[in-house]
Amino acid sequence: MLAKIANGFRMWMPNMPIMMTSARNATATHPARATFRVLPRMTKHEIKEYLTKIYNLPVRKVNTMNYLGKRKNVTGSKKIIRYKYKDFKKAVVTFDRSLADVGMGMRIPELDEDQLSEA
User: Fold this and answer.
1) CB-side neighbour CA atoms (13 Å) of 109
2) Dihedral sign, CA of 33, 10, 69, 104?
């Protein structure tokens, strides 16, 4: 019975690699944005849930782009070896207006309070 219920749901645990490649802080006209490299099988909804539930980030919109890995040839003395880099998906995440700084050199208030109390 439990196996039938479990097969109907797709549960992701936080072992999916999400790597931030670039980030842009909010300006007066544009909200903060960040670009991530994610697994090709991740959907927009899963990316949004991942960032919202695990990192408590106010995600407004997620745009994704699929990329095929580059194919390369290495010429040896007797034969040509062909290989291919992994496919990946690029996710551009737009944050809510409440987030002004995306974290490049960001100050963490909890750490600042700890340092002030120690001094």
Assistant:
1) 0
2) positive
